[in-house]
Specification:
By secondary structure, the protein is of the alpha+beta class. It folds into three domains: 208 residues, D-Maltodextrin-Binding Protein, domain 2; 224 residues, D-Maltodextrin-Binding Protein, domain 2, CATH 3.40.190.10; 49 residues, no CATH class. It is 42% helix and 11% strand. The strands form four sheets. The chain has a four-stranded mixed beta sheet with strand order 6-9-5-10. Helix 14 crosses helix 15.
Amino acid sequence: MKIKKQLALGLCFVMAAPMSALAGEISEEDKLKTYDPVITLTFAKPEVVKTYAEGEDAQNNSAYAMWEEVMGIHVENQILAPSGSMTEKLQLAIGSNDIPDFAIVDATMMASLIKNDMVEDMTDVYETWATDDLKQLTEQNDKGLFAPVTNSDGRYMGIPVPNTLGDSYPIMWIRQDWLDALGLEAPKTMDEALDIAIKFATEDPDGNGKADTYGLYLDKDLTGLDYIMAAYEAYTRDEYWVKAEDGSFKAGCTDEKAKKPLEKLAQLYKEGAIDPEFAVKDASKEEELIAAGKIGIYCGLFFNPLGVMKDCVANVDGADWTAVKMPPAEGVENYKPGVPLNVYGYIYAKKGIENPEAIVVMMNWLCDGYAQSKEDNEFYIKYNELMEKPEIRDTSGVNNLMPFQMAANINWGETFLKAIENGDEHVPGKDADYQNVISTELDEATSWAWKKVYLEGYLAIDFDNVRYSDYAGAPTATAVKVQSLLNKQKLTDYIAIIMGDKDISYFDTFVETYNNIGAAKIAEEIAEAISQ
């Protein structure tokens, strides 16, 4: 059975019975049930902890005990392996028809489980047992997260385990002191931002009388480029597919819309606004220029100030960075980055297990007691009690001990600002970071960085405006063979255009080469998979 991609507008799901009637039989309170007697579910646990508290290990630990106390669910690690070995272990389990009762897997593994008819259809179970809070979390962005677990009949063969979009939502960081020195305002369009990058390179923003500054950060892996391209509605991230009105697919990096930003970046390079050696420098080497105060714009993520930007502030008198919402290009209404599905993975229930609803019950508890941090939730209370124990906090940490985690799209910037305004001493769910933001004991640069992350960076995130790939299923047969070659080809040809080694007209040659390597075949395989 092949996976059918759920498009941005969602699928019309086929239900075996009216779910409204079934769901009405179970109250929201009862969906947060505690099994009595305790039930046991086997699990595949990635081993990520290096140091445990005395007397604890991956199976016998405080978090698993808390899980059992709160939920009445004893989790037994049928498979325990390092993250890098988990796929191999699960493949062996599939081959021997002995998979655990549940696990968190990626889209490729999910496709294999579905193909081998090894997992429960969770549609009715999910619709009946999921709390309203969990549904709000898992069904964000038009149920886009469900794509890899939805079969050709529109049935859920698993459930996405959400992560926060904040970890992948881009932010533009700009040297505020350079804007002030040149009398410039923060850009409202990407075109303005790229013009500012040229001014940063040509108008001596640091006032040292030398032509030694660059406007825009790029490295040999083109870090941040995809964020810039998205402003022009070109979605160039690796393995990002765009569906046309006729139902065909193409790789986003081959879209004609990529020409304009590539041409603009070539102009920046020609005018010295990009480090001439960027193509041979990895991130750690190129970031030395940020730390030295020589780069003015970095397209990254909300937490970047805690890295080399902090070093820049510490090293350069008067240096300051400000967070700017990634602006759209001229003529584009809203900036929508092309982001990966914000999931830790997909949770399945082994076909034939006695309590498939227990999978959803676990997610309900984690949603309210962890992801959304409801203070009256028993899981939240017990979790925070464990967080207060130094022997756990300073070794494994509670998060790594738990069977799995999930996260909500909470704008912690808004939460922190409100807490500061109210004079609150603590913020549930994010208190360790909040203590760093309000601390008076950190050094000046570190204090600056924590405040920038939460009081500016987070505020520049727009959780409601994102774009997922139009295909989110498992890699096709051809993709498995040639995706690394495609990624390398894009990188090589994009760099050649930016550096001026190739004219923008070469983009058409790149598209032809890229498709011949295998992208055209992958597009056909995707269309075929979806049509089944």
